[in-house]
Here is the input.
Amino acid sequence: MGAFATAGMQMVAARPCMSASQGMLTSRPAVSRIGRALSTSTGFASYPRICYSSPLGSSKHTCVSIRAMSSEGVPQGLPIDLRGKRAFIAGVADDNGYGWAIAKALAAAGAEILVGTWVPALNIFETSLRRGKFDESRKLPDGSLMEIVKVYPLDAVYDSPEDVPEDVKGNKRYAGSSNWTVKEVAESVKNDFGSIDILVHSLANGPEVTKPLLETSRRGYLAAISASSYSFVSLLQHFLPIMNPGGATISLTYIASERAIPGYGGGMSSAKSALESDTRVLAFEAGRKGKIRVNTISAGPLGSRAAKAIGFIEKMIEYSYVNAPLQKELLADEVGNTAAFLVSPLASAITGSTVYVDNGLNTMGLAVDSPTITS
Here is the structure.
């Protein structure tokens, strides 16, 4: 990414002027008017002229024109530049989900990419990477391929080795992998790289997601909460000590957190509600403790392999297309681009927020394709 085009701000053409608010009482300089002055000789289409009043007791007002100073030959704009930043993305197991799209967007902005992959899916994911199966989807805007510096085995349901049940330890799907609890992965990343700047939570699982909430067992409900929301608390808890001040985290939520989505069951709607509530609380705690920003993206439906577990993802995608204000397909890249913005310096004052990336579907209170309306 190119360097930020504006190297500084230059004050020019300072001169006394009359303010429209000469009678305004103020104990300090105050902005009273912003005008526009066109320039054809500087290469800038326009720049603002700001008039401000002098301290109390003076009738003199001063106007200054402000324009951005740009380095010659450097493209104009606000680039998302994450060069020198390191991101750990938990929950990447293939190339067609939001986690992958976020990884690509961060890589395109210059970040170094580490991923955590669910242990039972680790061998297939690494084999596919090694054999070039993902090469086409690894392509970045400049034509290069996204490089994943290291893949870590991860099961975010377990905080430490002491939490792992014996039947899981002996499960053949976990054979050959070690140090995959949240605590161990954070320690491994610290030993390998020292620190990170960006933490992405792209994890969700509800073993009873196809069951209505009234039919969901306690075990299934708590499993959904554990895998889909507490896992983010655990990740931030263990990674916060190795996150550089000014860093940022992102998680993924869904509109079922605040609206009834029949069929999205098993406690998953409750888990998403908890995730959004935790985002606000963790924004305060991590912000005060480590100067870390915490946001979540409420993404629209995507036909990923994981999403197909709910059984009617295609219908949800069709519903969104028909009823959203922006009647277009929602692309995973659009979520990835939003994540890149949110973890970048351009979003340095945004934390504790739920950001909707769903073509505006969340704003609708009426389905335009309802038989009641269409008739």
